[in-house]
Write a structure and sequence with these properties.
Shape: elongated
Number of domains: 2
CATH superfamily of the largest domain: Glycerate kinase, domain 2
Largest sheet: 6 strands, mixed
Oligomer: single chain
Distance between the termini: 15 Å
Helix content: 25-40%
CATH architecture of the largest domain: Alpha-Beta Complex
Strand order of the largest sheet: 3-4-5-6-9-10
Strand content: 15-25%
Radius of gyration: 22 Å
Number of strands: 13
Number of helices: 14
Structural class: alpha/beta
């Protein structure tokens, strides 16, 4: 029996490949000569760089870039197939990089995201996969564009300062110093939000509060972004602040769509395409997936459901494993997951359950018992 494993990370415990290896260990306890294939899985958010880079035989790069507060941070991205960079914007401009007391989108910048792209271009990359979730910023991607050579200038011809305050002062956009290689680059942007740039559903109103914005700041930033979009529209035909996803990551979605050769796509779809999972699933006898927590939100475009949908395209049975499940997880049975199992073996503290060694052993023990049942059922039939 050929089993294909594509399981998302159990955040805080096991990476995608570590979880897959634990499942393979369990299967081989029951079937010594089992045919098991492990493929990396992520949804375009946290863990995507590690999953795709390690899973596709790539190499991680560590670079010092400008963090969201303007101070240096060490950011990691991956290079796969020699010409494809895998980047998470949160590595350079993420909310987790800013202490709660210091969160203020008036000053946080995406400049470091542009530096990561610039570094990858210098390494020969021309294809980019970029996850843009978890941002600390609301600068419309202005910082990123500055790092790529765009002149984002005030009325006196100087580069505007970092953050939304820079958007406020923006008067002119120039292209004279843009990195020439940028025209040859393509960007697949993992984006699962549909918010426009501005308005009541825009990035300032919806995501601003979690980044430290007050009601007065939200109103001001929304107005500045409207002016920015109008200014961009004078020279860039793709500028459309009402387009779905332009409000992602504090307007970074707008910057990518307007100033680069980019498309916004479902994160899981990008990962499934790039890892060519379909080539493996269509010849499988069983597909295994899962994530840290299977609940009612799992069916809302999360990685396991993407795997299940692909498997059902070929009529393959799907089993999922998770650190925990909730009653609402039953909806997954209606979306391609035939059966799911929590791996918790005993009553323990959350801290203990999250230890990698505990999670690995729980995964092995649970999967082994499921496969013993499968082996018995197949033999009986």
């Amino acid at each position: 029996m050929k089993t294909v494993i594509a399981i998302d990370s159990l955040k805080g415990s096991l990476s995608s490949l570590e979880a897959g290896d634990a499942i393979r260990t369990a299967i081989c306890r029951v079937q010594q000569n089992a045919d098991v294939v492990i493929r990396p899985l992520a949804d375009g958010g946290e863990g995507t760089v590690e999953a795709l880079t390690h899973g596709m035989g790539g190499a991680l790069q560590t670079v010092s870039v400008t963090g969201p507060l303007g101070e240096p941070v060490r950011a990691v991205y991956g290079i796969v197939r020699g010409d494809t960079a895998v980047i998470e914007m949160s590595a350079a401009a993420g909310l987790t990089l800013v202490d709660a007391a210091k969160r203020n989108p008036l000053y946080t910048t995406t400049y470091g995201v542009g530096e990561l792209i610039r570094h990858a271009i210098g390494q020969g990359c021309r294809r980019f996969i970029v996850g843009i979730g978890g941002s600390a910023t609301n600068d419309g991607g202005v910082g990123m564009l500055q790092a790529l050579g765009y002149g984002m200038l005030d009325h006196e011809g100087r580069q505007v300062p970092f953050g939304a305050m820079g958007v406020k002062e923006l008067a002119t956009i120039t292209q004279d110093e843009v990195l020439p290689e940028l025209r040859d680059c393509t960007f697949r942007i993992a984006c699962d939000v549909t918010n426009p740039l501005c308005g009541t559903a825009g990035c300032s109103a919806v995501f601003g509060p979690q980044k430290g914005a007050t009601p007065a700041m939200i109103t001001a930033m929304d107005g500045w972004l409207k002016q920015y979009a109008a200014l961009a529209g004078r020279s860039f035909s793709r500028a459309d602040p009402q387009r779905s996803g332009t409000g992602a990551a504090g307007g970074l979605g707008f910057a990518f769509l307007t100033f680069t050769n980019a498309v916004l796509e479902s994160g899981i779809q990008i990962v499934l395409d790039e890892t060519r999972l379909e080539d493996y699933v269509k010849t499988a006898d069983l597909v295994i997936t899962g994530e840290g927590r299977i609940d009612g939100q799992t069916v809302m475009g999360k990685a396991p459901i993407g795997v299940a949908a692909m498997a059902k395209k070929y009529g393959k049975p799907v089993v999922a494993f998770a650190g925990c499940v909730t009653p609402a997880a039953k909806t997954c049975n209606e979306h391609g997951i035939d059966a799911y199992f929590p791996i918790l073996q005993r009553t323990e503290s959350l801290a203990e359950c999250l230890k990698p060694e505990t999670a690995r052993q729980n995964m092995i023990d649970t999967v082994e018992q499921v496969f013993r049942l499968l082996a018995t059922a197949i033999h009986t039939i």
